[in-house]
């Protein structure tokens, strides 16, 4: 093999790797769709697509906050616990009216994010440690507030969970709107540019005079708030508050969606469109395994494999 041929081969491999890094998640979604169309009975039904969209909405919302945290070279492991805390607060305060209950659930997410952000930004605790502490304590608090499953009987929550506009469920609309808002913030605002600069190099961001601590706190507050919103929507869909199981392993799904979607764990970049596609990929993968009677444990194994492959494929993308 001549030197010219070798260079051409290496260039082709780099182009192929770049295509996989940029568009692999979309290709994965298309492949799973084709597999299900070919081998899964009734997959093309309207009811099935509606079910898949409703189930993926909370994953999308949580993954949006996770993408912001990972964009700063951090992570938020508390999102599942925050969902559980939100459902407990929602059930606890529903007797005072739906608006009060929603506000208290959202406030719980904000306070959890504020605690994580303060630990990361002001105390200097590693994000994985800070949010791990909130992951444990948050679910514990949720179980103290609501020790067992409780039915949610409220017309407003029922409408939120089952209602739609032009056939599109409210849950899907909310997730789509939040994705557009977060994408706009990341791409078009000063805050978004500051967030990416901090993820690229926190030390350089400090030297440049950027408000590093403030941005980090806001990122984790937003992540907590989005997790609380996801908890509210999941509760509305299930018509029940279950802090024992709601949000369990949601952090795994969110991290998978973000990483598969092209956001490197090394920070400095956030791909919202890829994150949404990653969430859809995870939902389709889960649904495919379930519809073909494979045990739930296989879903977790499959997600772990997807994460490893995505991180491996992103190893060059994450280098700066």
Automatic annotation (TrEMBL):
It is a multi-pass membrane protein. Its main location: membrane. CDD domains: TM_PBP1_transp_AraH_like. Pfam families: BPD_transp_2. InterPro entries: ABC_transp_permease. It is found in: Cell membrane. The chain crosses the membrane at residues 23-40, 52-70, 102-122, 129-147, 167-186, 215-234, 296-314. The keyword Ligase does not apply. Keywords: Cell membrane, Membrane, Transmembrane, Transmembrane helix. The keyword Cell membrane applies. PANTHER family: ABC TRANSPORTER PERMEASE PROTEIN YPHD-RELATED-RELATED (PTHR32196), RIBOSE IMPORT PERMEASE PROTEIN RBSC (PTHR32196:SF72). This is ABC transporter permease.
């Amino acid at each position: 093999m001549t030197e010219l041929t070798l260079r051409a081969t290496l260039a082709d491999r780099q182009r192929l790797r770049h295509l996989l890094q940029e568009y692999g998640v979309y290709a994965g979604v298309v492949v799973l769709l084709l597999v299900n169309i070919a081998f899964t009975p009734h997959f093309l039904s309207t009811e099935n697509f509606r079910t898949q969209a409703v189930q993926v909405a909370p994953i999308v919302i949580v993954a949006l906050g996770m993408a912001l945290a990972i964009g700063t070279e951090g992570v938020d492991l508390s999102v599942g616990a925050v969902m559980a805390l939100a459902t407990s607060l929602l059930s606890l305060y529903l007797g005072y009216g739906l608006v009060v209950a929603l506000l208290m659930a959202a406030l719980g997410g904000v306070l959890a994010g504020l605690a994580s952000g303060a630990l990361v930004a002001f105390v200097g605790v590693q994000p994985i440690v800070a949010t791990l502490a909130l992951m444990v304590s948050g679910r514990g608090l949720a179980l103290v507030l609501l020790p067992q499953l409780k039915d949610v009987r409220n017309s407003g929550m029922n409408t939120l969970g089952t209602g739609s506009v032009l056939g599109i469920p409210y849950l899907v609309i909310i997730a789509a709107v939040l994705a557009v808002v977060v994408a706009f913030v990341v791409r078009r605002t000063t805050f978004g540019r500051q967030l990416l600069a901090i993820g690229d190099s926190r030390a350089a961001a400090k030297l440049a005079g950027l408000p590093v601590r403030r941005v980090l706190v806001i990122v984790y507050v937003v992540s907590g708030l989005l997790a609380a919103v996801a908890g509210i929507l999941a509760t509305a869909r299930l018509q029940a508050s279950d802090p024992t199981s709601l949000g369990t392993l949601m952090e795994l799904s969110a991290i998978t969606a973000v990483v598969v979607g092209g956001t490197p764990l090394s920070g400095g970049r956030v791909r919202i469109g890829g994150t949404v596609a990653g969430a859809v990929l995870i939902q389709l993968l889960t649904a495919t395994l379930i519809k073909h009677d494979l045990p739930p444990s296989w879903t977790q194994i499959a997600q772990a494999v997807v994460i490893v492959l995505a991180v491996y494929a992103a190893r060059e993308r994450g280098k700066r």
